Amino acid sequence: MRHRNSDGEDGREQVGGTAPPDLNLLRTFLAVHRSGSFTAAARLLGLSQPTVTAQVRSLEAQLGRELFARLPRGAAPSPFADELAARVVEPLDALAAVAGQGGFAAEGAAEPVHLAGPAELLSHSVVPTLGPLVEKGVRLRITTGLTEPLLEEMRAGRHDLVIATVRPRGRHLTSVPLTDEEFVLVAAPSWAERIGGPARVAAEGAAALHGIPLVAYAEDLPIVRRYWRHVFGKRLVCRAAVTVPDLRAVKAAVVGGSGFSVLPRYLCLAELASGALVLLGEPDDPPINTGFLVQRPGASDNPHVALVRDHLLRSARAW
Fold first, then answer.
1. How large is the average pLDDT for residues 62-81?
2. Could you give the CA distance from residue 247 to residue 264 in angstroms, rounded to a whole number?
3. Which of 206, 251, 257, 260 has the smallest number of CB atoms closer than 10 Å to its CB?
4. Same structural domain for residues 24 and 77?
5. What is the DSSP letter of 99?
């Protein structure tokens, strides 16, 4: 908007020291931020990928700040981009709702948002953060399970959002990195003392654990086998003494003295702090697994899906 400034010269209304960005540029920016890539944003907006790239570059030029780091697969938002997204998401979605283009409709009119993911991460990190959404009128239907079956159910239309332990392949689903989980080798104090503690594991490696019962998530030992390859550089040859398909129950069994296991660090922070579990190693390069937030391409008919998605992306920083 043009106005006459105090010394009589023509000028532009300033917001934060710059002219207000075009709303279309902000909508395109938000689509890239939400989808995690320029290509996915183009599909969401019905634009060409070069057009999306040009609009984001135009916005970056207006703001004088880089918004995304271009990666081989996707785009990583800068801290400034995260702050900008948090400021514009609700106003833009409210405008879109008025225009009949999605966004935040009247809360009571929206259908429940169907969210799915690993039981442990949902119960420990996700569900405790959902109170503000429920207070706003968002209804949630939460399903737990393994990644591959949940992604198949999403392709069939059962879920709106899935937290996946692997990035889905193909163009039928879009994903953005959500959180990293570090895996740690743990045992109850009695077993740690019996084998000589973490010092012996550091000196002898996997051999120090010979004879200790293994507690695992599944018979094929996916988490433990990965730890063995990554940290010890060896193939795991032992069999599990106890298997239970819930990492919270695995943790409980290890705390109770059933043996050792490999668990996500976030899941056993309290037990490590209290001494109920002992960390048997601190490798310089611990195994890390990235979790992804997955959805189907295209704008959802349910305006609350975007609200839940943005809330999860913001909350994940504290997990």
1. 86
2. 9
3. 257
4. yes
5. T
Query: What pLDDT, on the 0 to 100 scale, is given for residue 158?
Result: 94
Residue 97's pLDDT band (boundaries 50, 70, 90)? low
- At a CB cut-off of 8 Å and minimum separation 6, what does 187 contact? 195, 212, 254, 259, 260, 261, 277, 278, 280
Q: Give the E-state strand segments of the chain in sequence order.
A: 2-4, 10-12, 68-71, 74-77, 113-117, 140-144, 161-164, 174-187, 215-216, 242-243, 260-264, 278-279, 288-295
Note whether 228 and 206 are same-domain residues: yes
Q: Domain tally for the chain?
A: 3
On whether both 86 and 139 belong to a single domain, the answer is no
Answer whether 249's CB lies under 8 Å from 268's CB. Answer: no
The token pair at 279 is 């960390």
Length of the chain: 319
What would the pLDDT profile of 80-92 be if each residue is shown by its tens digit? 988 898 888 878 8
Range of the domain at 191: 181-289
Beta bridge partners of 214: 260
Other Cβ atoms within 10 Å of 243 Cβ, number: 17
